[in-house]
Amino acid sequence: MNHFLPRALCQGRAALFHSAAPRHNPIIFSSRLPILHVAAFSQAAQQPPKSGQQTHSQPPIPPPSKSPEELASLSYIVRRTPSTQLPIYRRWMSGGNRQVVLIKKIDGDRRKMLEDIVESLGIGREDIRINPTTQHIELKGNHFDKARSWLLQRGF
Q1: Which of 65, 130, 136, 152 is least enclosed, having the fewest CB within 10 Å?
Q2: Contact (Cβ atoms closer than 8 angstroms) between residue 87 and residue 80
Q3: Where are the domains of the chain?
């Protein structure tokens, strides 16, 4: 247990209370803090990002192109998340050296979907599997963009 931390906190409090400001008037004590101008923050938020800076917003994903009746006629369905995003995720493994793409929220015939992905995307049969516990489809390698565009093309 580190015994230095509680002592340092006590000394910090003591130094705080033994300042030159009077104890009975907390307004004078707090007036020593620097005044922050809100206008500076709002101007910075309105400026466009400089070149070389990344913005963290992604383009919105279009809504499903098929009606619920058309999706019901298929042998499998990939449901959207509550925020209407596609349930496709990247997982970095082995210290960031290996990438696995997960497709979740699959209802229906998962084996048929797996075969369709193998045919459409040209992924080797040894690089794709159905997780026996979670029933998610796992793609080995950097196939995130291809799988996402394939799901959008299929109307999910």
Answers
A1: 65
A2: yes
A3: 4-46, 68-153
Longest dimension (CA), the chain: 78
Handedness of CA 72, 77, 82, 86 (dihedral sign): negative
Write down the H helix ranges in 18-143: 26-30, 38-46, 68-72, 110-121
Fold of 68-153: Translation Initiation Factor Eif1 (3.30.780)
Query: Is residue 120 helix, strand or coil?
Result: helix
> Which residue has tokens 């390698």?
141
Give me the phi and psi of 35, to 5 degrees please.
-90, 125
The tokens for 84 are 């209407």
Q: Which letter does DSSP use for residue 65 in this model?
A: S
